[in-house]
Specification:
Nuclear Transport Factor 2, Chain: A, 3 helices, elongated
Amino acid sequence: MGDTSGQVQLLIDRLEIDDLLTRYTIALDTRQWDLLATVFTPDATIDYTSSQGIKGRYPEIRVWLEKALSAFTASQHLLGNRQIALDGDHGTGRTYFFNPNTLTDADGAATMLFVGGFYVDKFVRTAEGWRIADRDEQTTWVNSEEPLDSIVARLGNS
């Protein structure tokens, strides 16, 4: 039987990255914004422009996420298929997402916004564990009960 320590480390790394990706969704859906500091490097570049969002460095994106997502009365950031490649302390990934979101107006009427696509990430191992150093959200479809530009205007992201 050969040395399996490299294979074991690869499995550990992949599980830690899986936890990292899940932590991202928990931070967003439970509105624990400070938890995002355990997901991204302090200088991470993040691009949400494919879903009418912004592109910038982590500190700016964190503020924007809180403002944009707090407008929704409920959200679920669900992750699906993952393709992860690791090379030492660096890695890349492509993770599919499905995000149903509820926006409730002043009269209590709910509008659903469904967003699907994938995240293209660059990972780096830090002293605190794996982090996302670069994220490009690639939205492939949006379905809404009202026009997307109307929802964006209601969110104040235009």
